[in-house]
Amino acid sequence: MITLVTGSNGQLGKTIQSIVKKNTKFIFTDINSLDITKKKEIELFIKKYNIKCIVNCAAYTNVDKAEIEKEKADELNCNAVKNLAEISEIYKLRLIHISTDYVYNGINKSEISEHEYVNPQNYYGVSKLNGEKHIENSISESIVIRTSWLYSSFGKNFVKTILEKARSENLLKIVGDQYGCPTNAHDLANAIIQIIKSKDRINKESKIYNFSNLGYTTWFNFGKIILDYVSDNYNLEEIKTNEISQLSKRPKFAVTSKAKIISVFNLEIPHWKDSLKKFLKKI
Ligand SMILES: NC(=O)c1ccc[n+]([C@@H]2O[C@H](COP(=O)([O-])OP(=O)(O)OC[C@H]3O[C@@H](n4cnc5c(N)ncnc54)[C@H](OP(=O)(O)O)[C@@H]3O)[C@@H](O)[C@H]2O)c1
Known about the structure:
The chain has 283 residues and is an alpha/beta fold. The protein has nine helices and twelve strands.
């Protein structure tokens, strides 16, 4: 079974690539080789390479800019996902689509399960939620994985930013009143690979699944643990969300339950602290 990974110059796509290496059962594309907004081109590609599964890592991911570039966010996070869902129906493909915890409003201080109320607090979340609906309504063998606070050695992410700032700034200020679940892209990539390999239909028990590392924290504590690992001499200050200016609102308590994905796909998910330490040791 040949799997196409779209958006593979991004963090998650590159991480999957780093795991499967030169396995010929995977084909990696990005906007230059396959633009997921171009339906005809995707169809030709699917036929040419006899693709049987798509992992969609392509997305509009700039959360703040999405408030201004709403059309661009819609085109990629919603309309292009419609293309992929329709093509998956026609060519009977498996489709694994990646979404976000930002579809939840995160106003309750309790773990969020997949069936719970969705109410995005920003336009990025709106566009991702609208994209998810095309998968949910599709008769194809497709699922949505909602992930959060993704980091890897590729691209831009919180862990890399903290490490860079620790080298160049005397005082780091990090918000301590937003809770969420860090996700090592390596763990998500491994879960995706395990799901691709599963022999049953992948949308066994409805289509939406949460995935992140286990446990939860605040951005401040996440930053502190990174800094504790690399240095014993840094200045860190905890601040509140209303002390920083951001174009978009973020959920306050986006802590998701992973019980469903663990039981349906028989996954073992590491705790975020263990996975972070492994990551920091490696880099
Ligand atoms: N990063 C996080 O913290 C986070 C949190 C929750 C959920 N997610 C979701 O996880 C998924 C992967 O995120 P990520 O961090 O790996 O994202 P990323 O690093 O921004 O990668 C997205 C990739 O998609 C490419 N792309 C843009 N337009 C495209 C098009 N028309 N056709 C094909 N490819 C296109 C981008 O290329 P260019 O760079 O050239 O534009 C980029 O390489 C996304 O669905 C995201 O919404 C991420």
